[in-house]
Design goal:
single chain, 471 residues, mainly alpha, globular
């Protein structure tokens, strides 16, 4: 059954009726542009901090983001469940169910961000920094940074949530435009707050967090205004109640919770990997190399791949909702070819000119440069595998199979790489290239397992429904 409302913006039916390659690209390219620009903003932050504060500032941002992402992915799991519902209902052209699903996800995110993340994140920040074995000088720079991220996380959460909802509904251009706006504002604020300007003092690493909080907060407010203005395919109204709809919320967590646990497992693996990096002979230098190489430069691959993952999830989910599972299967193949090409090209750049790339972050010589160049060599290969893995993860999650990526991630991103590091450390002693090799093996195994699981096709039989609206 479909429902349409005269005068309201309708869903893009070309996603389920037009050429499949065009449908994937229609959703992928704006998200890829948005994510690359967002990644460049992070690179600019790291470059400014690296040149103004030094490699301890780079390491502080890297370890702080690792912890922040570890916590935020649980809240963001609601968005994955929301994306499953939105894509299915958009494919079936059920507008009311799309709006209700997004609104309930908004209420849940509001409660978790303000009532849970802000107070607990502020209080637990020192313990979390100690957990990852960050060097003392790194902890000094990281503590105010991570506290600001936790306390003022709501704007960033709203941006991610509404962006994901619109992409799942077929509108990737609006999130791209607001993402570019947020990035540009963030860069301007960071130029002022990191280095200082006139009467405004130099806040250093803390200034990077302040700029992000202000820019994301303003963007979140703009998103809310657009949702109430009837200018988007998803719309909120003032008649919507703050009363939770437990039928929808149960569906959000049914599909989203496995993705949240997956994110926690993956990022916990990253945190534990930082402990191994912190145990190396040159720990601070290795953490800085990891922060710049893996967190920032590798984002040129991962942010692009995440964009393709979101596009694949939306196209696969919408076509399954419309009753076209074969198109859902084909969408992952099309997107993986695009991801492979982009990752291969960026990997060649990593391999050919690592020195100039790292010089942007103030890494011009010494041990930290050697370690970063070594890491980029491994990441040049690893990027191809992680790109394909993310695309097929999107295909699984978009069709409602959020459990398989969880199991795959636990094996490939936690058990396997950490087991390699533990085994080598216990036998011959851990070196930096052992850690980089373990990361590569993890990405290769994730790729293989994700492709095999998706091609089994068990996602074709997953049902989604939230029932009629309550009176």
């Amino acid at each position: 059954m479909t429902n349409t409302v005269p005068g309201k913006k309708q869903f893009d039916r070309s996603i389920v009726e037009g050429p499949l390659g065009r449908a994937v690209w229609h959703l992928a390219w704006p998200t890829m542009v948005q994510n690359v620009i967002g990644g460049l903003q992070g690179i600019i932050d790291q470059a400014m901090v690296g040149n103004f504060v030094g490699h301890t500032g780079n390491a502080a941002i890297g370890v702080s983001l690792q912890i922040f992402i570890l916590v935020i992915v649980f809240v963001a799991s609601v968005f994955t469940g929301m994306g499953v519902l939105v894509a299915r209902f958009a494919g079936a052209n059920e507008i009311d169910k799309v709006n209700r699903s997004v609104y309930q996800a908004f209420l849940v995110a509001l409660i978790l961000a303000v009532g849970v993340m802000a107070p607990l994140g502020y209080w637990l920040a020192p313990m979390l920094l100690s957990l990852i074995n960050a060097a003392p000088e790194v902890q000094v720079e990281a503590l105010p940074y991570i506290r600001i991220q936790f306390v003022f996380s709501f704007g960033m959460l709203m941006f991610f949530m509404f962006s994901g909802a619109l992409r799942a509904a077929g509108d990737a251009k609006t999130p791209m435009r607001l993402g570019i706006f947020m990035t540009a504002l963030n860069i301007v604020l960071n130029v002022v707050l990191i280095r200082g300007l006139g009467p405004i003092p130099a806040f250093g690493t803390t200034g990077a967090a302040m700029g992000t909080a202000i820019a994301s907060g303003i963007t979140g407010i703009l998103f809310m205004w657009l949702l109430f203005s009837n200018r988007l395919v998803i719309q909120f109204t003032r008649s919507m109640s703050f009363r939770p709809d437990m039928v929808i919320i149960r569906q959000l967590f049914k599909f989203g919770l496995p993705a949240g646990i997956q994110g926690i497992a993956m990022n916990l693996g990253g945190v534990l990997m930082l402990r191994y990096i912190g145990s190396l002979r040159y720990s601070a230098e290795a953490q800085a190399a990891y922060s710049v190489g893996y967190t920032e430069l590798f984002s040129l691959i991962t942010w692009t791949s995440v964009g393709l993952m979101g596009a694949t999830a939306a196209v696969a989910g919408q076509n399954l909702g419309a009753g076209y599972p074969d198109r859902s299967a084909k969408s992952a193949q099309v997107a993986s070819m695009i991801g492979f090409g982009v990752a291969f090209a960026v990997g060649l750049v990593f391999y050919a000119i690592p020195g100039p790339l790292l010089a942007v972050f103030g890494m011009n010589d010494g041990v930290v440069l050697d370690l970063a160049v070594e890491l980029l060599g491994y990441l040049a290969v690893s990027g191809v595998f992680v790109s394909v893995a993310l695309v097929y993860t999107g295909g699984l999650q978009g069709t409602g199979d959020t459990r398989s990526p969880l199991y795959i991630s636990i094996v490939s991103q936690v058990i396997l790489p950490l087991g390699i590091c533990a085994g080598i450390q216990a036998t011959s002693g851990l070196e930096s290239h052992n850690v980089w090799f373990a990361i590569l093996i993890g990405h290769m195994s994730r790729c293989g397992l994700s492709v095999v699981r998706f091609r089994q096709g068990k996602w074709r039989d997953i049902a989604v429904d939230i029932g009629p609206a309550r009176a």
